């Protein structure tokens, strides 16, 4: 293995923190650890900006359009998978924004059981079912009013060239 192969690489994910009338949108999904709750979230794909990735993930996991309006924060967490011992560090960019209409006829992504709207107290009470410790933290930061401008995240045009290759 060359030096490049041994470099530690966190897994980059994007998440949507979506609130409506005091409730937050979560997805219930199948994971190797069983049925878990998460913010609509997923991995950043080659060739897309973090904002584009977040829009795509919300559509895939909730069947709704989503328009990010602000960055809630950038988060680092580590997960050790009990079954395999796999050790993954996640770098999460969490966005908030406007949830649009449901897309007619659009099915939820494979593994997503349903979407649900929970109050912050209900989210806190279901902590043992969260996919990540970031689920609650991002909601708490959103509820506290944390908003950073989208302009704080810049994607160079060279990134889009990745999408054309894959």
TrEMBL record:
EC number: 3.6.1.-
Broadest EC class assigned to this enzyme: hydrolase
Domain Nudix hydrolase intervals: 7-140
Keyword Magnesium among record annotations: yes
Name of a matching Pfam family: NUDIX
A GO MF label: thiamine diphosphate phosphatase activity
Cofactor(s) needed: Mg(2+)
Keywords: Hydrolase, Magnesium
Family annotation (PANTHER family): NUDIX HYDROLASE 23, PHOSPHATASE NUDJ
Family to which this protein belongs: Belongs to the Nudix hydrolase family. NudJ subfamily.
Quaternary structure, from the entry: Monomer.
The protein's name: Phosphatase NudJ
Species per Swiss-Prot/TrEMBL record: Tepidimonas thermarum
